[in-house]
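Annex B. Sample input.
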Amino acid sequence: MTLFAEHRINCKSDTTSLAPSPEPKANIGRIFNIQRYSLNDGNGIRTVIFFKGCPHVCPWCANPESMSRQPQLVRRLSKCIHNEVCSQAPDECPSGALEWIGYDISLDALIDKILKDEIFYRTSGGGITLSGGEVLLQAKFANQLLKELKYLGIHTAIETAGDCNFDDFYSVAQYCDEVLFDFKIMDETKAKTILHIHLNRVLSNFQKLYTTGINLIPRLPLIPTYTLSQANVEKVLDFLQPFSNIKEIHILPFHQFGVSKYELLDRPYGLKNLRVPNESEIEAIKQLIEKRGYKVVNGG
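Annex B, continued. Sample output.
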């Protein structure tokens, strides 16, 4: 789930409000970016919709702007001309240094944006991926969006940690061609205290969703000191062993691409000095997974 920190957000286009209510209506989604021409997050050329809001607090999150459900006003110091009087209003900022991260968009407006690249989806085998944040926090809107996209014949996918009420999860997943399902810390206590993830609910949701026949693709973030260990990966593999239709696993090695976003939001980033995994560590995990009979995709 990547997003370039210097991407300019248009706060006026297709927005309902710059300071929307805490809970948008069912036909209004709260997002913070639309990333076009993505070659990750699913097959082919894709448009990735980044939903705002996440119930989890992963220390390695590369999209910290996704955590809060509320729009956030930020100042890009590289653009700021330091007026003596600053209105604190993005619409009045002459240099574009002030901007909102996050806005509300209607279902129709979002579909109109998506369909501008329809030819690329069809010729490349691509489509739409809903990311975040956690898309399942906005299950009603995601359900409507995906249902319409499936009616239009567009390939659909979501990226999720799967930690929510199963009925909400299924209401979204039933309109997905694939669900990219993240497995993180596989110790129940650590998952709760470090990430605020309910591991038992996550595993139960995976089991239930598997029985529906929906295409599930497990993903493993490889984060030193948190998930990058043989023991943690083996717990994932042991859990997946009974699900014979699972043939492919994606690995997501840790990176530091999100550091500048924490600085932009004036938030501390505790993993700034955490090393990036080297090739031999990644290869060892890849071989461990392959020995269990899975195809391994680095990234995805």
